Prior knowledge:
This protein has 140 residues and is of the alpha/beta class.
Amino acid sequence: MPVSFHFPAKTNLRDRTRLKSFIPAIFKREGRKLQELSIIFCSDEELLQINRDFLRHDYYTDIITFNLGAEADTDINAEIYISTDRVRENALQFQQSFTHEIHRVIFHGILHLCGYKDKSKADISLMRKKEEEYLSRYFS
C-alpha cells in the first residue's frame, strides 16, 4: 500500500484502511500517480521544530508537506507532517469534529502535492472548494 500512517503523537484516526484506499483516488482524479506517501502525526512542538529547521519559519502550523520528488514530476513520493494539537484547536475554533478537521488537513496536504496553492485569495478559494469536494466524497 503506497500510504502509511505514523503516530508519534496520540491520534484518533478511524477507518484507516478506507482512508488508505481513498487517498490514491484523489491523486488519480487530479492527474497524479501516487508512489509513496507517509503521513506523520506529531505535536505542535515537533512541527514547529520542523518548520524552523526546514522552512526557516518560526510559527505554529497544522501541516507541512514535503514533495520528495521533482517538482514537475506527476509521480508523487512525499511526506505530510500534521500537528494533532493544532488540528484539535482548529476543530474547536471552526466548530468541527476532530474527525472532519483531520481529514480536511490530510486532503489539504494532498492537494498541495497535486499543485494547488493557498497564497492568494483566489488560490485559497479554490483550495477550500477542492477540500470540500473530497470531504463530501469521502463522508457521503
